[in-house]
Amino acid sequence: MSDITADRAGDRAGDQAGTPAAFSPPARPASYLTAEQGIASWLLTTDHKRIALLYALALTVFFFIGGAGAVAIRLELFTPAQDLMSADAYNRMFTLHGVVMVWFFLVPSIPNTLGNFLLPLMIGAKDLAFPRLNLLSWYVFITAGACLVYALVAGGVDTGWTFYAPYSTTFSNSYVVAAVLAVIAVGFSSIATGVNFIATVHMLRAPGLHWFRLPLLVWAIYGTSLVIVLATPVLTAVLLLIFAERAFDLPVFDAARGGDPLLFQHLFWFYSHPAVYIMILPSFGVISELVTCFARRQVFGYRFMVYAILWIAVIGFTVWGHHMFVSGQSLYASLVFSFLSFVIAVPSAIKVFNWTFTLYRGDIRFDAPMLYAIGFIGLFTIGGLTGLFLASIPIDVHVSDTYYVVAHFHFIMVGGAVSAFYGGLHFWWPKLTGRMAPDRWARFAAILMFFGFSFTFFPMFIMGFLGMPRRYGAYPPEFQVYHVMASCGAVLLAVAYLLPMGYLAWSLIWGKRAGNNPWDATGLEWQTTSPPPRENFHTPPVVETGPYYYHPHGRGPGPRTAETENPQGHET
């Protein structure tokens, strides 16, 4: 790769010195951003890169909606008395926050944006296997979002994001049906995307790109897609049963008429615990890419990292019962689920161990993406270790439905997943836009996010152990100091989330122009132009080495491809 970079510099110098017109190279194809103009070209596009940006725009809107719910919750909890909104309004507000953030941001955030953009580039493909299905999945997602917005505007939902029966089927008089239909629709969008990703990885890999030459982000997206395709139909089925009970008065979950409300919990958590890995597995892939690039070392234990991803994807289907230790299920079933919940911590520990050893003796560069990666490792480790307490039946019984669970969930899903999303966004921003983000502002935002998040949610562990229940708008005065700390931390966290939106938008116009490979990384996506052309590569790549081809103390030659042999796309 060093020789290739020198050749490129020589080519540029030769071009500047003056190349005879008869021998001037042909113009490069236009980038995907400028290939077609007009709103219609975006709304009807089948280019995976443009669809990724459409998803990013929609997710930003839902992030603001869900964040507004979080702001309202923290403002209410600033004082012990419920003086900002009624108890019913508070129920609707935390339901809004949960439903929007889980299904309309966290689940699709990395797969549908970075995954959609990068997967074909990372395997040397021109597009996804089914481009029209990709566009259809975005329209289904938008339709689902419109249905949810209707439910929120019309009066909201007060069941919590879990839609627990029989409350959601019998007692709630809010807009449950519209919200349930929205989640069902977004599930179909996820399934379509998952099928597309699986087919793409199987069918469209570049010549020479064998399974164990795939980047870890591709493995993570592949594993996530398997979980989506296998688990989401169960969620769809149980939500359809809620719809049937409310719309047609079928006694599915009503115990008074022979129904079984615990059946809902079993079906819901059979999907929703694997959904935790739908949210976090792509983050594992992103962090692996960042750590190896900025440590200038190959990933330690690459095959173990792959097996850990697949282990999580499989075992994740067997641990749902730890959400039901206090529901009255069999003690023997609880013991089995407790054991399996400890077992699934092993592959996550392998990943943290391998990231740490990748950093060991590495030539580490503390650019903004690396700071986000380090923040992710810290927050995810805290979240993972506190999750082990929830796998223990006696402790889980004590802290169930307290703020301890809120803190643990957010350390994993928000602290981890959002840190990885922002880290990946900064890392691949030059490839998306052809511009560099301002590094000083980006470093500041990464550090602020880590401390703001810790200041917001760590006090909740203490509140949970002391017995503060979640989902209460009023609380005993002795908990106020912890809630004030959390609300002040939330202000810092909000600044850390909003700041990148400002300077990234600024960089689109005034940012420094990025080269094709500003980070000196080794993936196939860095062997094409920034931003890429419509069909991703000027010449089809051929892979001859494994991933992360770094020397122990610096960048190695990288994957040898037809694109790097002929980087300008000239005729040879």
Automatic annotation (TrEMBL):
Residues 15-28 have a biased composition (Low complexity). It is found in: Membrane. Residues 42-544 form the Cytochrome oxidase subunit I profile domain. It comes from the Bacteria. It is a multi-pass membrane protein. Keywords: Electron transport, Heme, Iron, Membrane, Metal-binding, Respiratory chain, Transmembrane, Transmembrane helix, Transport. The chain crosses the membrane at residues 52-73, 93-114, 135-155, 175-204, 216-244, 268-292, 304-325, 331-350, 371-395, 407-429, 441-462, 482-506. Residues 1-28, 551-572 are annotated as: Disordered. It holds the Pfam family COX1. The keyword Cytoplasm does not apply. Belongs to the heme-copper respiratory oxidase family. PANTHER family: CYTOCHROME C OXIDASE SUBUNIT 1. This is Cbb3-type cytochrome c oxidase subunit I. It comes from Roseomonas elaeocarpi. The lineage of its organism: Bacteria, Pseudomonadati, Pseudomonadota, Alphaproteobacteria, Acetobacterales.
